[in-house]
Write a structure and sequence with these properties.
With 210 residues, the chain is mostly beta strands. The chain has helices spanning 3-11, 169-176, and strands at 16-19, 29-30, 32-35, 54-59, 64-71, 73-78, 84-89, 98-101, 113-116, 120-121, 139-144, 150-163, 183-193, 198-209.
């Protein structure tokens, strides 16, 4: 990981992601907001994996094959933190793609890369609707751009009920898994808050390189 990425991890002590909840018709809304970043780089993974610029995420256990787009750090108001403006992960522009946080670790490096995807409230598809169904041992593959190969992971843990109203809850979850996971997949879960138009919690699936 470059010195710039190390500095980013040190400076962004609390990160909140606010995805504007877009009404998609009756009973449909995006509902994504995420707190925290990996504060401690992960320990080196066994074996050697290629470093890839991700283009596709594959998770067979939930029938997922999705394009990956780059998302950067942004400054946005956080409704679960009283509307204060905070540093935030960017999020993908639609429900069909996954966002890779480009200001964080590279996919395939020993540190924890971060990917984010939407959950759709209501009867409709979003890329991480079934993220909470994953179980330890499930396979995850990140495919790189042309000629870069791919990185294979296995799920090691899935943590639900991470409250968005706690500004350090997601950071703590990511940091506590940094010694054994090199990929964090983040989405929303829990009860939908109609005032903020976002779900109240986060779900994170952690995966280790195999």
């Amino acid at each position: 990981m470059t010195a710039k990425r190390h500095r980013m991890l040190r400076v962004l002590v609390v990160v909140v992601v606010w995805c504007m909840s877009l009404a998609l018709g009756a009973g449909h809304a995006w509902a994504d907001q995420h707190h925290g970043i990996p504060a401690v780089p992960a320990a080196p993974a066994p074996g050697a994996a290629p470093i890839v610029q991700p283009t596709t995420l594959q998770i067979p256990a939930i029938g997922l094959v999705a394009p990956v787009v780059s998302v950067a750090t942004v400054m946005q108001p956080a409704p679960f933190l009283g509307g204060q403006t905070v540093s935030s992960f960017g999020v993908p522009p639609d429900g069909n793609s996954v966002g890779w946080w480009v200001d964080g670790p590279l996919v395939g490096s020993p540190a924890m890369a971060v990917m984010l995807g939407h959950t759709l409230v209501g009867n409709g598809y979003a890329v991480f609707n079934r993220l909470g169904e994953l179980r330890p041992g499930d396979a995850v593959t990140v495919v790189g751009d042309a000629g870069a190969g791919h990185v294979d992971f296995r799920i090691v843990d899935v943590v639900a009920g991470i409250p968005k109203g706690d500004p350090v809850a997601l950071q703590g979850a990511l940091s506590s898994h940094s010694s054994r996971a090199q990929l964090a997949l983040i989405t929303c879960g829990g009860e939908f808050d109609r005032t903020s138009r976002s779900s109240a919690d986060n779900i994170v699936a952690f995966a280790a390189i195999v």
